[in-house]
Amino acid sequence: MTIMDFPTFMQQVVNSLSLGSLYALLAIGYTMVYGILRLINFAHGDIFMLGAYFAFYAITIFTLPWYLAFPVAIIFTVLFGIILERFAYRPLRNSPRIAIMISAIGASYLIENLGVMIFGGRPEAFPTIQLFNQIFSIGSVKVSGVSLLIPIVTLVVLLVLFYVINKTKTGMAMRAVSKDYEAARLMGVDVNTIITITFGIGSGLAAVGAILWGMKYPQLIPLMGLMPGLKCFIAAVIGGIGDVRGAVIGGFILGFGEIMLVAFIPDLSGYRDAFAFVVLILVLLIKPSGIMGKATVEKV
């Protein structure tokens, strides 16, 4: 085990906050869709990938400045998520749950292979934005601007999201639909619209996470959403899938665990990805519903 000095430890804490924030943003998308539809959107990691590529091409091909390119990328990602829900999931909403799950898996593979065909298999470098690549000194700790930016953006996004869910009519409708489709419909809630909004919000969060991920880890490939998507699904399950707070907690558990594992035990760095699966197994053995989840009986 490596013994590190205080500045190095604090740098690792900042890195953990950064990675945990990214996982939290993506995990929330999983948990929101599951909370409304009881559907695991396996294509969520691929929507994340598209968000990064949309931002990349907006800057490199359309030469938009980053402060225009990023909102454009988020808008296009949201639109893609809405279209995916409309054509891949909505027609199967009243079908057996296995059918919609297979559709989600099929959509994921389709997006990945289209990505390879359209974007090519060669890795691309996400554009460098000097404003966020500056090194800041906080006492004896030196951290990059993007490492500080990611937790701040995540906090702002989460505050806005919690306000929408808990303080607006749309959020009230989301909570109603998550409890009972038919009862919500009888109360005048447009279920289709609420589900569309939910997919749009989840896709927007994936796009924000993808842009921040691209600035932090500037290599883009069409399969870049596979492992982050899987880990964030695990984070959602660890936290209690269907609970937004649980998704955030699960994301930070994985982020801190991965970074600290490598920092304190470098010899286990090759098992970094396995850490998520070990934590998942332990949580499911101890509390199958997740940290914030409540035990429920599955309807058949």
In brief:
This protein is mainly alpha-helical.
Describe this structure in words.
- This protein has 300 residues and is mainly alpha-helical.
- The chain has one domain: ABC transporter involved in vitamin B12 uptake, BtuC (Orthogonal Bundle).
- Helices cover 71% and strands 4% of the residues.
- It has eleven helices and four strands.
- It has a two-stranded antiparallel ribbon with strand order 1-4.
- A hairpin with a 2-residue loop joins strand 2 and strand 3.
Helix-strand layout with pairing:
Blueprint: H1 6-37, H2 44-60, H3 66-89, H4 97-119, E1 124-125, E2 135-138, E3 141-144, H5 145-167, H6 169-179, H7 181-186, H8 191-216, E4 219-220, H9 226-239, H10 244-264, H11 272-286
Helix pairs in contact: 1-5, 1-8, 1-9, 1-10, 2-3, 2-4, 2-8, 2-9, 3-8, 5-6, 5-8, 6-8, 9-10, 9-11, 10-11
Defining traits:
about 300 residues; mainly alpha; ABC transporter involved in vitamin B12 uptake, BtuC; two-stranded antiparallel ribbon; 11 helices; about 5% strand; globular
